[in-house]
Amino acid sequence: MRRDRLLLAATLTAIFSADLYFVLLPKLRSVGLGSGDLCPCGSDNFTLPRHGGLATPQLSNWTLYGTTSELADDGGSKLERLFSHPLYNIEIPVLGSEERLLQAEQPMEYYRKKVAHWERHMHLRNEAAALSNITVTEHGVTFDPEASWLKFHSGISSYALYSRNDPAIPKLLKDMHRMSVISADYTQDEKALKGACDCTQVVKPSGHHLKLALKMQDFGKAMFKPMRQQRDEETPEDFFYFVDLQRHNAEIAAFHLDRILDFRRVPPVAGRLVNVSGEVLLVTQNEHLRAVFFTSPANNTCFFAKCLYVCKTEYAVCGGPDLLEGSLSAYLPSLSMAPRISISNPWTRSYTFSGREEWEVNPFYCDTVKQQYPYNSGNRLLNIIDMSIFDFLTSNMDRHHYEIFTKFGDDGFLLHLDNARGFGKHSQDEMSILAPLSQCCMIKRSTLVRLQLLARPEFRLSDVMRESLKGDSLQPVLTEPHLSALDRRLQKVLRAVQRCVRRLGEEYVITKDFVKSTGTPQINTEMRKDR
Amino acid sequence: MRRDRLLLAATLTAIFSADLYFVLLPKLRSVGLGSGDLCPCGSDNFTLPRHGGLATPQLSNWTLYGTTSELADDGGSKLERLFSHPLYNIEIPVLGSEERLLQAEQPMEYYRKKVAHWERHMHLRNEAAALSNITVTEHGVTFDPEASWLKFHSGISSYALYSRNDPAIPKLLKDMHRMSVISADYTQDEKALKGACDCTQVVKPSGHHLKLALKMQDFGKAMFKPMRQQRDEETPEDFFYFVDLQRHNAEIAAFHLDRILDFRRVPPVAGRLVNVSGEVLLVTQNEHLRAVFFTSPANNTCFFAKCLYVCKTEYAVCGGPDLLEGSLSAYLPSLSMAPRISISNPWTRSYTFSGREEWEVNPFYCDTVKQQYPYNSGNRLLNIIDMSIFDFLTSNMDRHHYEIFTKFGDDGFLLHLDNARGFGKHSQDEMSILAPLSQCCMIKRSTLVRLQLLARPEFRLSDVMRESLKGDSLQPVLTEPHLSALDRRLQKVLRAVQRCVRRLGEEYVITKDFVKSTGTPQINTEMRKDR
After folding, report:
1. Nearest to B260 by CA among B30, B501, B465, B59
2. Using the beta-carbon criterion (under 8 Å), do B316 and A200 form an inter-chain contact?
3. Cβ <8 Å between A238 and B297
4. Is there a contact between B199 and A308 if contact means CB atoms under 8 Å apart?
């Protein structure tokens, strides 16, 4: 309970700071300078209710900049300034074991076991090879207690996947980009399919069968999604969202956007030029995977999906002749250590040609959801709304399920996994993705103030995204039209909130964060569905 | 036997005329005008051996133009001039029943039966509809003894699918382009599959499952292949020929090219904007076909393949919102009236990722083929070489089988069906397609002299093709780079012949046409394979 209070105090302080920054300062300025409006967009004119004085501010790196125009014009790093902004510097209390996903020794024990298993396996393989007079390539593995993936796993808390200034995250991105790959295999999802797909189903999600699990020299694991579309190609207008290709650059961009929004619910993703011969074909010990490799008429190394109904070379991806762009997403801790559940999104789409879900036809759908466990209390619905804002910004219509860590109960944050179907069409804003926000008319105050910040010229979302994405080796990750679309969509989110406020008032719409669930922290089994 | 002699005489006359035109006249001119070379390309410098005086010329519309430069520069119709050229006006003797594919009354009887069957079927359908109080659309059908498709079928002879000046052919093209569609269905090939595809085969030809059989108001039937690729798109370099898309414009262009080469072995093909709602969905009585129609997110009417393993909407084709470009290829007479056999091409490709057929590794492969029935005598091998030249010009690598009418025995002409995989890459010339010519070093004299004619500026192949294709409603059928590729490839064919002549001499390489088979006109069952 004490920790909760501390947290509440920290939040209120942040809100007070925002209030001071967004409301009081401009008001003072407008008194002094006449009616000069510093905020160019109407949707940005929310005033936050005051909670000043309720708690002592606990802010680190607090810097109050002189004027907003200085910020916009001095040519410095907008991204650095964003991350030094008070809203991005709320101090999180020291984490207890309840707030940590893993116990202190757990990841290290797991790591030791994996290395021992690998070494046994390699020993047996080498013995067998020596008997058959075959030379096998040795992959130098390292046991590194300082491995970045280990630090990432250890740092996962009930607040987010990583803390804002965790040095392990940039290191993990660098490691995924550079480190030697010692093994490649299908992901568990694919293995579960055993190559047998349900071909009787006319309409089903497809195209996800080309992802691979790569193991790095330090035993870090990453999911590799190869490039299947050029950055300037738009999804054809006749494609349904469920047959849209997966885009490696959307995975990368989604990680950066999520970090910029301060959600930190997307595992780190880095771009990499993967050598499909040396880093997949040569290192895999899965014969099925080896069997889907071929050399194209243009002498490029290619591979296609395992599932037979898509085992056509039209679906293949090819290196040039061996190098292929792709995204590498860091694996979460093993399910045995940190179980997760996959829950059907109440705003899921129909995944049929003409079917419509209830939310598409019933404007009062949210009232029904609000009465259902676990959306009837706590943060779950607000988390769904956060996710819908995130998906609207990336234009990802394929959010059929979401995952949470069971350890953190019903109020645990939602994992924003699988973002590769975003960024398909820059010219279109799919308003239906915002349905949870526009139908429920609720938003977390912490989310809103950050969105407002990112709508300001000095922190413009497209600018901070462009800057953030420059850090990836596959830059430019997004084309300019996709970056501009982010600004346009952000305005639409803010307008949607404004409409709600006009209709229902700020008190109703803008909701305090960190409201603890009043229900028992159990999981409603009816909502659970395995992915 | 007498008819054969007449034919031989006619051919020799044509050759004599060509000799006069190509060899003697230029020689005379060069004597008179110095050493001015009228032919710009080296490969065009063949001299034909003289057969003058052996037979009386039997030429219609013989016009000897003044000078070649006049022909090239006066801006008239090159295509008309090509078709008035003596080489395109060799008179065919009056056809006897042996030279005709069908007996006089056969097509009409077939037609009457079909109309009677349709009317019975419609009567029953209307009665059933009346009982259930359903309104059914009536399709006005006409019994037209002058129907162009009927004339086309009646005109098929042992020489070609149609005669050069048959007025039924332009009429048939017009009818396929304009006439009302009264019914649509899967083709027999597809029906044979019953929607169950062999998905265990990793590599198999695909993409052909979207063709449909359309029945016109006058009971003419055409195969509809919808547009699946924009004209300016090139086949990706990593695609194998057997997964390449089928191109409707390649079907149309192949018909025009075949006619220009004077082969006349491709059934007439016309382009058409098909209304997939009104002319397919509404008129089909096949429920399976109706079931694959859907409305896309962009509100266009789309349909996808019947075969389940490709029943993904990525494969769908969509109208805009209903109109969809496609090629309509005239049906040949029913197999019950005019049986055909499908024979494996000795120069077929391996249809695997890395397999190689014998012809690809053995430079003496042709010697083996030449010893095998039916390639050991008669015209069959020369016909294969004609086909390889045709396929090289269109760059179609997918000629795994060819068909012949059984009635005309081993020396019957080869049908050049299924040309939709041509014209995929304008920037590349796939020399391996020419293997039958370059390995066997034989070519029909009649083919060679026409190719030489089309290499001359006054009849330039790209120019006559451009002109011919202007007659189609979907013009421009081919982009300019594809037209230029035809000229470039034609030069390569002529150079291949030249190399053979240098090595083996004209007498060996340039072969007299119409050599009758010395073997029994039976079909070698070992070579036969059903498609």
Report:
1. B465
2. no
3. yes
4. yes
- Write the residue in B238, B241, B297 that is nearest to A316 by C-beta: B238
Which of B309, B313, B354 lies at the smallest CB-CB distance from A309? Answer: B309
Render pLDDT for A175-201 as a digit per residue (tens, 0 to 9): 999 999 999 998 876 666 555 544 444
d(CA B223, CA B190): 12
Q: Strands A293-295 and A181-186: what pairing?
A: unpaired
Q: Using the beta-carbon criterion (under 8 Å), do B296 and A239 form an inter-chain contact?
A: yes
Instruction: Give the number of other CB atoms < 10 A from CB of residue A27.
Output: 11
Q: In terms of C-beta density within 10 A (0-12 exposed, 13-18 middle, 19 or more buried), how is residue A82 classed? A: buried
Would you call B19 helix, strand, or coil by DSSP? helix
CB distance from A124 to chain B under 8 Å? no
CB contact under 8 A, A309 and B199: yes
Angle at B201 between CA B199 and CA B204, to 5 degrees: 100
Task: Give the count of alpha carbons within 13 A of A487, CB side only.
Answer: 17
Q: Give residues 192 to 221 of B whose Cβ lies within 8 Å of A.
A: 199-200, 202-203, 206-207
Q: What is the rounded distance in angstroms from the CA atom of residue A109 to the CA atom of residue A14?
A: 38
Task: Output the tens digit of pLDDT for each of chain B's 531 residues.
Answer: 455 565 555 555 555 555 555 545 544 444 333 333 323 333 333 333 333 222 222 333 322 223 333 344 567 899 999 999 999 988 778 889 999 999 989 999 999 999 999 989 888 888 888 888 877 777 778 889 999 999 999 999 999 999 999 999 999 999 999 999 999 998 876 666 555 444 444 444 444 467 899 999 999 999 999 998 899 998 888 888 777 788 999 999 999 999 999 999 999 999 999 999 999 999 999 988 898 888 988 999 998 776 544 444 456 788 899 999 999 999 999 999 999 999 999 999 988 778 899 999 999 999 999 999 999 988 999 999 999 999 999 999 999 999 999 999 998 999 999 999 999 999 999 999 999 999 999 999 999 999 999 999 999 999 999 999 999 999 999 999 999 999 999 999 999 999 999 999 999 999 987 433 333 333 333 333 333
**Pairwise CA distance, residues A348 & A358, whole Å:** 10
Interface check A323 vs B, CB under 8 A: no
**How large is the ipTM?**
0.72
Asked if B151 and B173 count as a contact pair (C-beta separation under 8 A), the reply is no
Distance of CA A68 to the CA centre of its chain: 30
Reported as type and span, the H/E element at residue A75 is none
Length of chain B: 531
- Report phi then psi at A207, rounded to 5: 85, -5
Neighboring chain B residues of A308 at a CB cutoff of 8 Å: 199-200, 202, 309
Kindly identify which residue of chain A lies nearest to residue B293, measuring between CA atoms.
Answer: A353
CA–CA separation, A149 and A202 (whole Å): 40
Query: Distance (Å, rounded) from C-alpha A164 to C-alpha A252?
Result: 18
Active site residue A198: no
For B144, counting Cβ atoms within 10 Å of its Cβ (0-12 exposed, 13-18 middle, 19+ buried), the class is: middle
Residues of A whose CB is below 8 A from B295: 353-354
- pLDDT tens digits along A231-256: 999 888 888 877 778 899 999 999 99
CB distance A264 to A162 below 8 Å: yes
Backbone angles phi, psi at A62, to 5 degrees: -70, 120
Closest chain B C-alpha to A199 CA, distance in angstroms? 7
Numbered residues of the known binding site of A for Mn(2+): 418
CA B451 – CA B390 distance, rounded (Å): 11
Distance (Å, whole) CA B346 – CA B527: 9
For the four alpha carbons of A467, A469, A474 and A478, in that order, the dihedral sign comes to negative
Q: Which two tokens stand for residue A408?
A: 């953190």
Distance from CA of A71 to the nearest CA of B (A): 43
Task: Give the amino acid at B382.
Answer: L
